[in-house]
Input
Amino acid sequence: MKPEGKVAIVTGAASGLGLATACGLAAAGASIVALDLDEARLARLREQVDPSRLLLCAGSVAEEVDVAAAVDAAVARFGALHIAVNCAGVADAAKTVSRGEPFPLAVWDKVIAINLTGTFNVIRLAAAKMAGNPPGEDGERGVIVNTSSGAAWQGQIGQAAYSASKAGVMGLTLPVARDLAPLGIRVLSIAPGLFDTSMVAGMPENVSRSIIDRMVLFPSRMGRADEFAALVRTIVENSYFNASTISLDAGARMSAR
Output
């Protein structure tokens, strides 16, 4: 599917991987529906994307009403929805037991609600809209790209909730792709490794360098958000990609901490 002339919803679009993806798909000619809780940062997208091809939606992926409003607005404004990219996520961490106290259940619920339930919430509502598109080449009607993580199978200390949520994203990829194949909708996930995003912002240079030296194979640096966005575009454009989780991690292997 060529992004030019298509309509894409991108969650977590106000920063990091989501921002780069929204800008990358817009540069390829897509109209963008940007969904994020951070209204102030979301508004800055107007400086990077043609306002005539941009719709800003403030809301949470974990809230059915917010996502439903965004996908309805996409169709009302641009006439269709063809691409959905799930980048919204949080990485709140806690040990299972720390100083005698158990993992706060509220932290677990928040991470699962946003990273896993929120991802599926977008998938199901976006796919329902895509199912109404006229079939393109090979009968394709839509493509959905989710964000898993190397933590799905290499979770570090304190990442029980985060790793579980990202393993869940990886786990749903195949069955959802099977569900949606008869409708001409592809479903894939990307598992980023160590990326230079707001989740690691503020980390002292000596600490980040130590992490890179210990964990990243080659090239010896953190990933860039535009590299994630480039893979999203490749997935959208290459219709033989389906039902897989693709590692984007420079060969990184995570240590326990």
User: Anything to note?
Assistant: The mean pLDDT is 95.
